[in-house]
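Reviewers of the previous submission asked for a worked example of the structure-prediction workflow described in the proposal, so we include one complete record here. The input consisted solely of the amino acid sequence. No template or homolog information was supplied to the procedure at any stage.
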Amino acid sequence: MQQTMEIMREMDLEDLREIDFHRGALYKVVNQVLKNAKKDRTSKEIAEILDEEESIVQQILSCHNEHPELSAEQIIKRIESYA
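From that input alone, the workflow returned the following structure tokens.
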């Protein structure tokens, strides 16, 4: 039983690390999108520069345009809640 609990804890830690990695990568993308948007680049241009899907860039820009006061972290939470 104790071994099973240790294995489950390790799996949880791995899941958390993966989630943290994903969130960190998304945080970086959001910041880069916003930085490029300030330079008046289109979503297509930004997607090409960042090598991201244009739909993701559009979601970020749409959320930012509707709520310009939100931080990158808050934008991520909103986008995740749409999914």
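The first helix runs from residue 2 to 38. We consider this example representative of the routine output the project will generate in years two and three.
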